[in-house]
Amino acid sequence: MEKRSAFNFTKFISMTGLFLLMNACYPDETLDVPTNQPPVNLETDLDIYIEENFRKEFGMAIRYRYDDRFVRPTQRVTPPKVELVRPMLDFIQNFWVDPFLEVENGEVYFRGYVPAEVVLLGGLIYNADGTVTLGTADAGAQITFTNVNQIDLNDPGWVSLQLQTVYHEFAHIVHQRNKLPTAFEEITPSGYTSAGSWFNLTDVEALTRGFVTPYATSSPNEDFAETVAVYLYDTDFAQKYLDEIPNCTTPECEAENLGKESIRKKLVSVSEHYKKVVGIDLEEVRTAVQARL
After folding, report:
1. How many Å apart are CA 61 and CA 115, to the nearest integer?
2. DSSP summary character for residue 180
3. Of the candidates 109, 229, 239, which has an alpha carbon nearest to the alpha carbon of residue 162?
4. Rounded to whole angstroms, how far apart are CA atoms 116 and 157?
5. pTM attached to this predicted model
6. Whether residue 131 has pLDDT greater than 90
């Protein structure tokens, strides 16, 4: 069973218009791997690489062999292709590990907050209710990457999915250990929805409420994590979420500018919180990330 806390990020996309609600919509790949896996022996170059570069270096276990404890019984997943595990690990190293190690105090922060377990799944997680889980975390102890079998560094959609997942989940660990910034919840108190209704909002509607994504409206914790994640990976963050639209003459335009004002306040709050509780400058991390995109 997959354990999830109230802080976990489990982002769902409605299947309407994307997939038919029938078994035929699932990938052809099947899980033909035994559920009970034998202990991992460090006999392959890949296992030795993981042992030396992740487990020994950061105390981070990489799980790429299928294990049913990583998903619920009602969920369907595929394992990653073995030949794609190393490219995915290189991606994780380049876009998650190294940017934090490069900034002042970043190494201390990363080593102290990195989860003990990283799970790699080949595809998305298909749920019985017709939704798709894009990524999960378990109370700061585990982060799950999905869709590894579609790895394509030239596909902005794939890259955005992975970066938003890992930066979001890593941000959750900060507030789990140090609480949210003071008064963060008071910046847009009336804009929050509920966990089961956020997906009814459009991106523009979320923006006018003062949120970077519809999912951010689901709770203050998700708002915090989404603000961090989108700030780090979105190249056009300032233009989309911070810069006022000049010469506003319509209510829609004015509403967007008010939403951006709230996001500016949230970014200041989040950035000051990171400096205070973990000693790193998010702007420096963003610079390191953007240099790789």
Report:
1. 9
2. P
3. 229
4. 27
5. 0.84
6. no
